[in-house]
Amino acid sequence: MSDELLRVTNLVKNFEVRRTKNSGAKKRTVQAVANVSFSIERGQTLGLVGESGSGKTTLGRCVLRLIEPTSGQVEFDGHDLGSMKFEELRALRRKMQIVFQDPFASLDPKMTVGASIAEPLIVQGVPGDHNDKIFDLLELVGLSVDHASRFPHEFSGGQRQRIGIARALALNPALIILDEPVSALDVSIQAGILNLFEDLQKKLGISYLFIAHDLSVVRHVADRIAVMYLGKIVEIGDQETVFENPTHPYTKALLSAVPLTDPKAERARTRVILEGEVPSPINPPSGCRFRTRCWKAQDICAQQEPVLELRAMGQMSACHFPES
Amino acid sequence: MADKILQIRNLQVTFDTPFGQVFAVRGVDLDVEAGELLGVVGESGSGKSVTFLAAMGLLSSRARVSGSVVLAGEELIGKSSRQLRSVRGRLMSMIFQDPLSALNPVHRVGKQIGEMLQAHQNLTNKQAAARAVELLDIVGIPQPDQRSSQYPHEFSGGMRQRVVIAIAIANNPKLLIADEPTTALDVTVQAQILEVIKRVQQQFGTAVVLITHDLGVIARVADIVDVMYAGRNVEQGSIESLYDHPSHPYTRGLLASIPQPGKGRLTPIRGFPPNMMDPPSGCAFRTRCDFADSTCEIEIPELRAFSDLQTACLRAQLLPSFRKTQ
Questions:
Q1: Which chain A residue is nearest to residue B271, measuring alpha carbons?
Q2: What is the reported pLDDT for B1?
Q3: What is d(CA B148, CA B103) in angstroms, rounded to the nearest whole number?
Q4: What is the pLDDT of residue A29?
């Protein structure tokens, strides 16, 4: 337990939807993250998966307080982030970094790569000219020293993502939030970046919150998995347990929707194809939010919201009729 | 044997840009047989979309297209835009990644389907409207008679893609080209759309070309696979053979870089795709290939029979046998 780096408890984030002419007088809210709790240990990776609109990105940003959570608690390395003043928070943010999906948008086109990587050091008031640090970081992420004086447009997508990672590493963080870090990359390039994450974790003992919609990628990198649906975690547990023995019907359907790359295995397996699409988070279904698409739903699912419960294989899931 | 619906020979597409010429497609050969589902796979910039946009005659005047595209016996390259218009939608149609931009926001979806029907068939408005409802039913839209009078914004992403498919198959074309049709969709919805496409192929005998970067999608639905790299085909064959014993180093590299359960460290392909303004001489993949030697710099490899695949690699017979990493 002492090895816990991040603990999130009952986190809620509501967004208010602006009234338009036709939406009536009532103010409406979207509950993007609905009472979510989890923790990450030092040197470990938690994979956060879910479809668009499930709240995984919002959750990642709430953890850093880039978005102010509505309620709930985020503890990082024993500090409660919610009660911190801005200055204290900024000092703590050295230890928590983020890498975004789009390596084209997250680098300033007018700054050299070296300047981009050094920027966090300058912002945090680290003394020195940072050149040695920049060179070390470039080598650490598999680029070369002479790349420092070039501009982002001279690099391919995979290389830019490496620059973004070097920048995130500049302040020796303990936690990096990786928000869809390989989704914009071709598979042959993606593999190199995934290997890099693995190497960095081994070398530096960093923890990752790895947010992605691609389950095969998450399975490859994560120690633990949390599956989100409409703002809630529906299943959480060890990677292997969740993938091999999913107990929530949504997890099961999600896994079965991902095509395998072996055509024989892919065609031989039985699939659960879900009906319909994710409902609007403005007006989520009562009780279990997944019930409108669930083939097991009964009356109780509409009336009573299921809570996360421990299952036989060791994971937690929130379902009245779990798969065994 | 089955008849060829589409035959592409030595297709070349070059774009003139202010920075120079981009050689996007550099001699593609491809056959699609009646009723089959061909998966075309390649990374960004491999020319997979441009090949079929050229076949449809949908490229801008900046593009210079040469070679031959024969659809159901008719040569399409060199046809006037008026002649092409009578082919598109009737003999072949194409759907794209983003269904919202393919639909007109100010017309009801039923009308948009009807428009396609009336462009090629002599139907009254009433007949077209009735047929539109049937088509919505075929692509699995619930309450098709009500949905037919709704606007695109009232549909979800997956439902919009179904509407686009309904428009594409309205005139029962011989060939449906689907360019990354599920890339913008969530996996659970992707699974639904793939089912619809597969059903169209099986129920109506429509040949389908599915263009994607996702080898998993191909594994699920394709009969035949074509792998593209730097504007050329590098390998073709049946889905089982291609995934079981790929012969081209690029195909092998792609399969080795995909994460799979139980697989240890991934093997990326080193380097990055070539700049198509100045592609490498000879085999374009040689700059990233572990097996290349000096002959690869000189000769451009053509597709040749190798085991039960067609492989464009000069050194295919010298490669070690493929070990599955699973």
A1: A189
A2: 47
A3: 13
A4: 86
